[in-house]
Design a protein that fits this description.
This protein is α/β, with parallel strands linked by helices. It folds into three domains: about 120 residues, Glucose Oxidase, domain 1 (3-Layer(bba) Sandwich), CATH 3.50.30; about 110 residues, Enzyme I, Chain A, domain 2 (Orthogonal Bundle), CATH 1.10.274; about 325 residues, Phosphoenolpyruvate-binding domains (TIM Barrel, Alpha-Beta Barrel), CATH 3.20.20.60. Helix content is about 50%, strand content about 15%. The protein has 22 helices and 16 strands. Strands 1-8-7-3-4-5-6-2 form an eight-stranded mixed β-sheet. An eight-stranded parallel β-sheet has the order 15-14-13-12-11-10-9-16. A hairpin with a 4-residue loop joins strand 7 and strand 8. Helix 1 crosses helix 5. The protein binds phosphoenolpyruvate (PEP) and magnesium ion. The site of phosphoenolpyruvate has 11 residues, from strand 10 and helix 17.
């Protein structure tokens, strides 16, 4: 059976499905034996105690660092955890129906979700969300403790099939050898996609209701380039895809050999190929793949994966570790970009907004928590002082800037943070301050903003979704959310030209920077700095060496005359096939 989704990370893998849901329970739960019931109850109790302690600590820490109102949510979660009916039902299912604890928790969540599915009462909907948080927290603990059912060896190579991969799950799954990812939700720029690409794992997102058609242990093929998933393939199909899988691995190895070669075009123009990272592990991957620095460190993963909330000292430690692991100790650190699709409960973003991506997210949210924001700015500046001492450089980047007032405000905050650090005896060297161009208003009026920043980073993932009014995570509108749309090309050209004319360094750090087709076009527009998932660096370096600037300019000029996304894509695909036919395998359709 073949299913189609959105291709998000290239490569082909033939393996065995491992289905998980939000609750970490394998979707087909086994029955406990008589002897296992008592230990499963004890495991559940131990997890409850740990979660209670965790929630308690969270309340105190968030209250201190952010404020008591923001901490209240954890008191609510603690009361759910202590609810007698909740625990009785879970224990009853474990002992009477022999369900593993994770499966019982999932059943409870399903029952409540079903019960309140149709309610329009915002309060009740929020309570189901709270219940989900508690259940996810509990099951994360349960899956850490050795589970009797986990003693069976996991299928290898393991292809994760999930509804959506949350950052917290990605951390727990970090130790598993995952060789492919398939999700029901998500799209090119969702977490699963970003994680998959940063690790070079073939992935397909947006495969609707696949969890209904597949079980753990089923043979499965993932073609991350075409966006197809084949469930229980026949022998002939398996053999054909195994051949493709070998070719892909071979190409990857061949490309990786260029890690120490400088990034230059065919006519010798030097380029900056930087990496987008979420963690120290990604920074190491960036170094291993031959990036010349980190163009985007998404700090939100530090918050999303922290057991509570990282304080200033913990942040500084994390940033220093990233600096140490990064190529040339050169890192652009972006301040918190939470909200939209990424949320942490303590920043008050849980209240459902009608349009979360257009609402209270990113820098708008940071401004609402000035102390919290100031602590992050201080930690980044202190990391800049650290990097400078070691011969590197940290730049500070502010996401989702909409207008000049916001730039003035962050500049004032940076000045203040420098003064505070100086008072503590830490002199911070000049640290370049940059803005992300993601909001169409900022892109259109970029000339008014450029005099106030040291550099620009184009966040095309968001810029495209806002420009096209098409949610980047909604598979239903993914045909509109296209970086190669003529409207997008015009805006990108406008922004890049304005930066070049004012001599403002500009990088593009959206996913399109690593797509061979889009790379040709951006190069033709005059862009010379690209930040992408580490996994893309080697193929883009290889492509760059095979194209000259006049060639890229001609490609860009012709593409600008085309009036539909489809035509642009086909035209670029054709030119790419002429320049580097072997690289087509690294492109997602
Ligand atoms: C972007 O929007 O292009 C970007 C790089 O930021 P993020 O994907 O983290 O929103
Ligand atoms: Mg963005």
């Amino acid at each position: 059976m073949m299913r189609r989704g959105i291709p998000v990370s290239p490569g082909v893998v033939v393996g065995t499905a491992y289905c998980i849901d939000q609750v970490f329970a394998p979707t087909t739960a086994e029955c406990l034996s008589d002897g296992e019931i008592a230990s499963e109850l004890a495991r559940y109790q131990a997890a409850r105690h740990r979660v209670a302690g965790e929630l308690h600590a969270l309340q105190r820490k968030v209250s201190r660092q952010v404020g008591p109102d923001e901490a209240a949510i954890f008191a609510m979660h603690e009361s759910i955890l202590r609810d007698v009916a909740f625990t009785e039902r879970v224990e009853q299912w474990i002992s009477e129906e022999r369900m593993p604890a994770c499966a019982a928790l999932r059943r409870l969540l399903e029952e409540y979700t079903h019960l309140f599915e149709r309610t329009t009462d915002e309060y009740l909907r929020e309570r189901v969300n709270d219940l989900r948080d508690v259940v996810v927290r509990l099951s994360a603990h349960l899956s850490e403790v050795l589970h009797p059912h986990d003693r069976q060896p996991l299928p290898q190579p393991l292809i994760l099939v999930a509804d959506e991969l949350l950052p917290s799950q990605a951390v727990v799954l970090g130790d598993l050898e995952v060789q492919g990812i398939v999700t029901q939700a998500g799209s090119q720029t969702s977490h699963a996609a970003i994680i998959a690409r940063s690790r070079g794992i073939p992935a397909v997102c947006g495969v609707s209701s696949i969890l209904r058609h597949i079980h753990t242990g089923d043979p499965i093929i993932v073609d991350g380039r075409a966006g197809t998933v084949i469930i229980r393939p026949d022998a002939e199909t398996t053999a054909a895809y195994r051949k493709l899988e070998r070719e892909y691995l071979h190409l990857k190895d061949a490309l990786a050999a260029n890690r120490d070669v400088p990034a230059v075009t065919g006519d010798g123009i030097p380029l900056q190929l930087l990496a987008n990272i979420n963690s120290t592990a990604d920074a190491r991957a960036a170094e291993a793949m031959g990036a010349s620095g980190v163009g985007l460190f998404r700090t939100e993963y530090l918050y999303l994966t922290h057991p509570s909330v990282p304080d200033e000292g913990e942040q500084l430690e994390a940033y220093q570790a990233v600096v140490d692991a990064s190529p040339n100790r050169s890192v652009t650190i972006r301040t918190l970009d939470i909200g939209g699709d990424k949320t942490v409960p303590y920043l008050g973003v849980r209240h459902r907004e009608a349009n979360p991506f257009m609402g209270w997210r990113s820098i708008r949210l940071s401004f609402e928590h000035p102390d919290f924001f100031a602590a992050q700015i201080r930690a980044i500046l202190a990391a800049a002082a650290y990097a400078a001492k070691k011969g590197g450089e940290v730049r500070i980047l502010f996401p989702m800037i909409s207008n000049l007032e916001e730039i003035r405000r962050v500049r004032a905050m940076v000045r203040r943070a420098r003064r505070d650090l100086a008072q503590r005896g830490l002199e911070v060297p000049a640290t370049p301050l940059g803005m992300m161009i993601e909001v169409p208003a900022a892109a259109v009026s970029i000339d008014t903003l450029l005099p106030f920043v040291d550099f620009v980073s184009i966040g095309s993932n968001d810029l495209v979704q806002y420009l096209m009014a098409a949610d980047r995570d909604n598979p239903k509108v993914s045909h509109l959310c296209q970086p190669l749309a003529p409207a997008v090309l015009r805006v990108l050209h406008h922004v890049i030209t304005a930066c070049l004319e004012s001599n403002t360094p500009v990088t593009l750090c959206g996913e399109m920077a690593g797509h061979p087709r889009a790379f040709l076009l951006l190069l033709g527009m005059g862009l010379r700095s690209f930040s992408m998932s580490p996994a893309w660096i080697s193929s883009i370096k290889n492509l760059a060496a095979r194209v000259t600037i006049p060639q890229a300019r001609e490609i860009f000029e012709r593409a600008m005359k085309l009036k539909t996304t489809g035509r642009v894509r086909r035209f670029l695909g054709k030119r790419l096939a002429e320049i580097a036919p072997d690289l087509a395998m690294m492109e997602v359709d």
